[in-house]
Specification:
The chain is globular, with a radius of gyration of 20 Å. The strands form two sheets. A 13-stranded mixed beta sheet has the order 3-4-5-6-7-8-9-10-11-12-13-14-15. Strands 1-2 form a two-stranded antiparallel ribbon. The longest helix has 13 residues. Helix 11 links the parallel strand 9 and strand 10. It is about 30% helix and about 20% strand.
């Protein structure tokens, strides 16, 4: 039984979770051998074990459906934009720095699950080459520190990385991409040095952002909201992104509640992602057109502040926003693009109700810059 307020212990073996029946454990052995499992006492305490469809359970507990042969490990082809060990540069103004191959929990739908299958494969410990690249490219104004989860590192180690970035004049925004506020808010609550780091490096003209990932309203517990408030008080700007996931937030009422609750706490809803076609993720995927309608229906019950996110696919060519669906066509627009000239390009395709990704649309009727 988890005792609220304490730093939770981590668990890397399903067999240690007494709430999972022995018969179910046996059926999950092959899944656990292929795709790593990790969670902690706090997050597991949010699960209603009497409900087989509990969304928190679906987020973090393996399922035999993950063994379906569908998708690729690098669905967005991040390897093509890797410019130095652990450093990606896909969009002119933003660089992505992979500093961790660990998380507070392993989301079963993670699009970088490849990192947890081969530890150390892409993340980097010596960031000197990465820093040199960033220094030599003054168009980069944003650096996203991610992984894995940077907040799984010690504050001391993370501070060293952020301190080096703050010495580069053209880096105006440092983002920390993290699900720790949902997985383990006590990482924030019980570590004043983390908050002091943010106070030091988030300045009036060079802000630090924490990009949270809350997938379901159940994750916005009292401790989670307290952790968010502490980050805000320390000077961090908070924004949330989540994929739209079957059985987790694919109900318009659930998604609307998530967007509203985030806005009430001062966390800006930022992106809703189409679930990437990553190996093992088929059972989480909602067809694009259905997902768009869920997204739009959810927004009907939100204030303007809660309906700010873009619904996008993080495609190998860029962030492709789904901007409309009618009886015959589905409409897209490059919200961001690897090829600068594609930004803003509007595209229309004939409907494909079975499409789960942009590549499933093969019948364009219009492609033009806006």
């Amino acid at each position: 039984m988890y005792e609220d307020g304490k730093n939770p212990r981590y668990c890397k073996k399903l067999s240690l979770i007494s709430d999972i029946p022995e018969k179910e454990l046996a059926s999950l052995e092959n899944v656990e051998n292929k795709f790593a499992f990790r969670s902690n006492e706090y997050y597991l305490s949010l699960i209603d074990w009497d409900d087989p469809d509990d969304p928190i359970r679906r987020i973090v507990i393996p399922s035999p459906e993950e063994l379906e042969d569908w998708g690729r490990l690098d669905a967005s082809e991040e390897v093509d934009y890797t410019v130095a060990p652990g450093l990606q540069h896909k969009y002119d103004q933003t660089a992505v720095l992979l500093v961790s191959d660990q998380c507070g929990g392993f989301c079963r739908f993670c699009f970088r699950k490849r990192l947890f299958m081969e530890m150390g494969r892409e993340m980097i410990k010596d960031i000197s080459r990465d820093m040199e690249y960033i220094k030599k490219n003054p168009q980069i104004t944003n650096v996203l520190i991610t992984g894995g989860d940077p907040l799984f590192h010690s504050t001391k180690r993370l501070s060293r990385i952020i301190s080096e970035l703050r010495e580069i004049d053209h880096i105006r925004i440092i983002r920390i991409g993290s699900k720790i506020p949902a997985y383990n808010p006590y990482r924030i609550i019980n570590d004043p040095s983390l908050l002091e780091m943010i106070r030091t490096f988030s300045t009036e003209k060079k802000r630090m952002y924490v990009m949270t990932q809350f997938n379901h309203p159940k994750e916005l517990t009292g401790p989670a909201v307290e952790g968010l408030s502490l980050l805000q008080e320390a000077g961090a700007v908070l924004a949330n992104q989540t994929p739209l996931l079957r059985g987790i937030n694919d109900n318009p009422d659930t998604l609307a509640e998530l967007l509203r609750e985030l806005s009430f706490t001062g966390v800006a809803p930022y992106y809703i992602f189409q679930c990437r076609p990553t190996l093992g993720n088929h059972h989480f995927a909602v067809p694009v057109e259905e997902a768009y309608r869920i997204f739009e229906e959810a927004k009907k019950n939100c204030s303007g502040l809660a309906k700010r996110p873009h619904f996008v696919m993080s495609h190998k060519t860029g962030k492709i926003a789904v901007v409309g669906v009618d009886d015959e066509h589905t409409y897209f627009k490059y919200h961001q693009a690897a090829d600068y000239d594609n930004i803003g390009t509007f595209m229309a395709f004939r409907n494909n109700p079975d499409a789960l990704w942009f590549d499933d649309y093969r019948d364009p009727v219009k492609m033009a810059p806006v």
